[in-house]
Amino acid sequence: MYIKRLEIDPFEECGPIGISFAEDVTVIDHNVGQTVVGAIKMLLLYSSQYGVDLPFSAGKPAKLFAEVVAGDATYHVRSCGLAGGLTVQRLAKDGTITRAEEAYCALMRRCAEENRISVVAGVHNGSDYGLERYRREDRYYGAGVFARVTDGMCLTHSFRRCVRQHMRQNAAEAPNADTPARPWIDTVRFWNAFGKMRDLHYEGKPLVVDQTLLSFVSAPVLFRMTGRQVLIVT
Prior knowledge:
This protein is of the alpha/beta class.
């Protein structure tokens, strides 16, 4: 899954913003970075707990549009302004165009915890994102919180087995884990594997990260290790 193009029209004095994204890594200029991140959070249905603010221009909400490639189709996604909601068209490979709001929402739905690790403003403290939090949730989460943010998946045997497997694998690779970003990368990889375990058609959402990560690991390596589109805000 990846974002092919994003448009924000209009946006204050800057006029329209239009960005084409690479399938692997794209660097977003800091002058429009937070506006772009807010638009991505909204159009890709990241949880509202992350403070998604719809860009405004002259007191009115800006128009948002994204072209998102997922599976064997391309989705044209548009915002519906302050009333909330999206309009979505699905473009199949054979050229067929259909309305697809419900299908798109199902495709993009993730639990709050997976959304949390997909939008990162720099990884200074690996413990904030490491799998150790999942193995000892009683230490890091209040009663019932971990079950809530994982939609109850953490209570399943498959979830716990997948966590143990990844932690053993990560321990075996420890000599190569020489970056503070590694705990976060390992957690992204866990969600990739657990998603595939639950649904063979699962595709991880694009990762939105701060340039702080580039102090720890190069952008191409970051993409290869996570297996997802990476959008870096400078």
